[in-house]
Amino acid sequence: MRIDIMTLFPDAIDAMMSQSIIGRAQAKGLVTIRTHQIREFTTNKQMQVDDYPYGGGRGAVMQADPLFRCWEHICQEVGKRVHTIYLSPCGRVFTQEVAKELKASFDELILVCGHYEGVDERFLEECVDEEISMGDFVLTGGEIPAMAVTDCLCRMVPGVLPEEACYTEESHWNHLLEYPQYSRPEEWHGRKVPAVLLSGHHGNVADWRQKESYKRTMTRRPDLFALFDEKQLTTNHDRKILSQAKEEYAAEQAAPPSSKT
Hints:
This protein has 10 helices and 9 strands. It has helices at 10-17, 20-27, 64-78, 96-105, 121-127, 143-154, 165-168, 202-220, 222-225, 236-254, and strands spanning 2-7, 32-37, 50-51, 61-62, 84-93, 108-113, 130-133, 187-188, 191-192. The strands form 3 sheets. A 5-stranded parallel β-sheet has the order 2-1-6-5-7, sandwiched between helices. Strands 3-4 form a two-stranded antiparallel ribbon. Strands 8-9 form a two-stranded antiparallel sheet. Strand 8 (187-188) and strand 9 form a beta hairpin. Helix 1 runs parallel beside helix 6 and helix 4 (96-105) crosses helix 6. It starts with a strand and ends in a 7-residue tail after the last helix. The mean pLDDT is 94.
């Protein structure tokens, strides 16, 4: 997978994307992440990429022409028009489902990082295929969202993580949150690791984790759990685990506040 990022701060992105799992994936040639300094595509000596907005108002707007020149350069380098995403608070919210969709649909992407008060609408109309938001809040620029999208997509590329289960069993993959995790020591500050995790019984451990995943999602993200499709549970055993989780969740919710942990 190849992702090109148009930005005013390539060094910041390069520093982050060259580390840890994503950095190793690049070194192995599993993914390609390239940053492009938009200022290098200006036609003025000052390398200015912004100007005052028509109609007045505070701040400045990124100009269409340097953005277009940068975008055109990437497309020529790739050899075709590349699906282009502008990171914007006005776009659809990025979720794991959106990530799956993008990963399945495109081998190359261009991510555009805005700054100041935004970018000239004409560039969006001509070059951008969709806008994506990190949520209902505003950041000072698109670099953090671009890195988040890149990280999320790249970790799903075969070989980046040791096995597929490393991401399919994590939060949000099937509209569920991940179960609690524990490590050594067995007791810390008076808090003990659940006995089932010490039992060595892999079936019981798997059942406990699934049940805790259901309960955690029902408690913390009822909106997410409402999207969970119970029809995907094809065995009586799986349906029994879900039923137990619902019963335990109901009992915990009905318990007096002082008895809840």
